[in-house]
Amino acid sequence: GAGVSQSPSNKVTEKGKDVELRCDPISGHTALYWYRQSLGQGLEFLIYFQGNSAPDKSGLPSDRFSAERTGGSVSTLTIQRTQQEDSAVYLCASSSQHGAREKLFFGSGTQLSVL
Amino acid sequence: SQKIEQNSEALNIQEGKTATLTCNYTNYSPAYLQWYRQDPGRGPVFLLLIRENEKEKRKERLKVTFDTTLKQSLFHITASQPADSATYLCALISGNTGKLIFGQGTTLQVKP
Predict the structure, then answer these.
(1) B34 at interface of A, judged by CB pairs closer than 8 A
(2) CB contact under 8 A, A100 and B31
(3) What are the respective helix, strand and coil percentages of chain A, to the nearest 5?
(4) Which member of A43, A98, A103 has the closest CB to residue B102?
(5) Does A107 touch chain B (CB under 8 A)?
(6) If DSSP codes are grouped into helix, strand and coil, which group holds residue B84?
(7) Which residue of chain B comes nearest to A102, CA vs CA?
(8) What Å distances lie between residue A11 and A34, A41, B98, CA to CA?
(9) Is A50 an interface residue toward B (CB < 8 Å)?
(10) Percent of chain B topping pLDDT 70
(11) A101: which residues sit within 8 A by CB, 6+ positions away?
């Protein structure tokens, strides 16, 4: 696609419910990243994929968070039993490959609100 | 511990002046450092990348410096315009897996 697409753009859920956030990266990009941004804060790294594998999951806050990527393309971030502290903007980014010189292209994010 | 620090206070300047934003890091030895711009409600947008052996990099009205001795990068916008108002983030690679870590960003407000 022309850019990184994330859906939904906004999600309101009740505490304890599960949510799925979707990221459609730029076509041909092999690396895909998930970040979380709380109000007025910087970006918190969650996980990244190279192809379908996730070499670094160190940023996932708890075992309620999981992510997968299939076909080297679309990725889904799942949060189980959501808590109020999960409320944030979840940003997805992709790059043509993984590396220090690679610039990231970000989507507009999913604003998650847990009531 | 590893840290990337940007001035959390907003920077307010007058149109036409040069804005200078600072990024300091500790316990990293990055080969590259990146700068991004983020507007409200949007994801960050890549601006510039500078290598450790480059002292300075320019792109139009933007200039980035990288001092690996001071562990600091400076980001300059010359002849600033109200449209430059945004949050600016620095980022560098951390660890063996190479994840990109961001500073918390500095908000720039350019007044007409």
Answers:
(1) yes
(2) yes
(3) 5, 50, 50
(4) A43
(5) yes
(6) helix
(7) B49
(8) 17, 20, 30
(9) no
(10) 96
(11) B32, B49
pLDDT confidence of residue B96: 63
Contacts of A100 in chain B (CB under 8 A): 30-32, 92-93, 98
Q: Which two tokens stand for residue B75?
A: 């980001």
Q: What is the average per-residue pLDDT within B16-34?
A: 92
Q: Both tokens of residue A76?
A: 């889904």
How much is the pLDDT for A1? 52
Buried b (16+ CB within 10 A) or exposed e, B2-25: eebebeeeebebeeeeebebebbb
Rg (Cα) of chain B, in Å, rounded?
14
Tell me if chain B has a CB within 8 Å of the CB of A93: yes
Q: What is the pLDDT of residues A32-62, one digit of tens each?
A: 999 999 987 889 999 999 999 988 888 999 9
Nearest CA in chain A to B30: A100
Mean pLDDT in residue range B92-109:
84
